[in-house]
Amino acid sequence: MRFVIPLMFVVVFLFALVKKKNVYSLFVEGGQGAFSLAVGLLPYLSAVLVLVNLLQESGLLSKIIDFVSPPFVAVGIPKELVHLTLLRPFSGSGSLAILNDVYKTYGVDGYVARCASVLMGSTETVFYISAVYFANTKVKSTGLALPIALGCTFLSCILTCLLCKVM
Amino acid sequence: MNYLWTILICIGILAVAFGGGEVLPVMINSCQQALELTFSFVCVYVVWLGFFNVLKATGIMNFLSRLLSPVIDKVYGKVNQEAKEYLLLNLSGNLLGLGNASTPSAVKAVSILEKDTKGKCSFATTMLFVLNATSLQLLPTTVIGMRATFGSANPADIIAPTLVSTCISTVFGALLVHCFVKK
């Protein structure tokens, strides 16, 4: 697995050379747009991060999570994991920190920790991805994209907690 | 998104201010975090977009995307040839676990697909977003690494449930997009 990416680069570069392409200038040309593409992202990422950090700093986030947790517990998500489930779509580093805490508190091979691991692996930071994908477009409304993605994330969480009981 | 963000941020500001914290430093620090992320993105983008451009010139992607055209048409609907190549790159990046190759290819695909869109995003973009946001990644390498650090007896034994959960939610997401989003 370690050699897949290096080999892929070498094969493609050499193949391009054989086809008499100017590999050097093609590479530079391709990278040219990278800066503006990434910089266009900054305000969107800031908007998401400012919100998450303000809510976290004030301690409101954990209060909100406590408040809305009953339905999550009702569908089979352990109450230790409601926090992770709700933070996961907003913050990758935040949820990794929670995962770290879960390992410390419950041990790495218990049901709760395995659930948390699978949850982490089978879901994504939905809001962050939406900021990244739509930052450089003029799209005004993302329509059903976000609701569907969030719904699937929720489904994935419920499934995870069931699967970890049997697998 | 507009109302949700505004209301939540106002609540956040008030809560921090009356909870004895400093609002402005928190906000500015968050932007600093965003800036660091942005710069790390620049580096990832330069390498991968540079590589993609070479790859494109070889004609390999053109050949593969023509070969897999029926599949791409089924999943994403009708899209132009250039977008097809990036959609295919994104898909293979995800499936092969080429980690950070999938984001630049997706961003590139979206920018081609939504070049002239000013209102709602298209079927293909919605599909691309849902597939990526429901996690197409097959090997959860970060989590396995963390479990190993914590001395797990079998760090990789979460792969099976992760695969099942990911596949079901991704297929379900794709079906929802097909049923509810106009092509």
List keywords for this structure.
heterodimer, A: 167 residues, mainly alpha, 10 helices, B: mainly alpha, 0% strand
Verbal overview:
The complex is a heterodimer of chains A (167) and B (183). Chain A has one domain (31-166). The two termini of chain A are 26 Å apart. Chain A is extended, with a radius of gyration of 21 Å. Chain A is 75% helix and 0% strand. The mean pLDDT of chain A is 88. Chain A contains 10 helices and no strands. Chain A has 167 residues and is mainly α. In chain A, helix 8 runs antiparallel to helix 10 (145-166). By secondary structure, chain B is mainly α. Chain B has one domain (24-180). Chain B is 75% helix and 0% strand. Chain B is built from 9 helices and no strands. Chain B has helices at residues 2-18, 23-58, 60-67, 69-76, 81-95, 102-113, 123-133, 141-149, 159-180. Chain B is globular. The mean pLDDT of chain B is 88. At the A-B interface, helix 1, helix 2, helix 3, helix 4 and helix 7 of A face helix 1, helix 2, helix 6, helix 7 and helix 8 of B.
Give the topology, please.
The complex is a heterodimer of chains A (167) and B (183).
Chain A: H1 4-18, H2 23-32, H3 34-39, H4 42-57, H5 60-74, H6 82-87, H7 92-106, H8 111-122, H9 126-134, H10 145-166
Chain B: H1 2-18, H2 23-58, H3 60-67, H4 69-76, H5 81-95, H6 102-113, H7 123-133, H8 141-149, H9 159-180
Oligomer: heterodimer
Largest sheet of chain B: none
Mean pLDDT of chain A: 88
Q: What Rg of chain A is obtained from the alpha carbons, in whole angstroms?
A: 21 Å
What ranges of chain B have pLDDT less than 50 throughout 5 or more consecutive residues? none
Helix content of chain A: over 70%
Proportion of residues in extended strands of chain A: under 5%
N-to-C SSE string of chain A, H for helix and E for strand:
HHHHHHHHHH
Instruction: Please give the count of helices of chain B.
Output: 9
**Structural class by helix and strand composition of chain A:** mainly alpha
